[in-house]
Amino acid sequence: MSDVVLPPEWELKIKGRKILAFGLNASFLLLYNEKILAKIRFALEQMKQASGSMICLFSPDACVDRIEELDPGIWAKYSELVQGFGCDADIIYDAGHMAGSYVERIAGYYGGPSDLAGVCHGAGKPVMFMDVDLLE
After folding, report:
1. What total of structural domains would you count in the chain?
2. N vs C: which end of the chain shows fewer Cβ within 10 Å?
């Protein structure tokens, strides 16, 4: 176990499970719209099913916050999706984009190309990129 101290509200959810970081960037949302929203929903559901041994740390890049002004329609759908999963006991939503500071505690990364993917790769963590076209 690392000496890195996570926020107390995260620790309460983790309960000794491995942390899988899940991230994306604004480009994915703008480029793939509905397709990426379906993929995010699918991925989060899959991670919830594996919650006995791991917990999802959903940490989108800070640039995702700009989607609201660039495409209000996709932002509304993304926000609704995030609100639906954000209160889940098996998912930590990193609204403050802090996950990179805790890379020592992260077991691996899944998602789209992002700053967090680069941080995880640099720390020697496994990094897996999602295929937007594959849902099963």
Report:
1. 1
2. C
19 or 84, which is more confident? 19
Q: What is the CATH number of the domain that holds 47?
A: 3.40.50.2000
Please state, in angstroms and rounded to a whole number, the distance separating the CA atoms of residues 50 and 47: 5
Residue 123, domain extent: 8-129
Phi first, then psi, for residue 24 (nearest 5°) are: -160, 170
| Beta pairing class for 91-93 and 54-58 | parallel
DSSP label of 74: H
- 27 occurs within a structural domain: yes
Cα 43 to Cα 15, 32, 33, 120, 132, distances in angstroms: 21, 15, 16, 19, 10
Answer yes or no: are the C-beta atoms of 107 and 20 closer than 8 Å: yes
* Listed range (80-84, 99-103, 119-123) with the worst mean pLDDT: 80-84
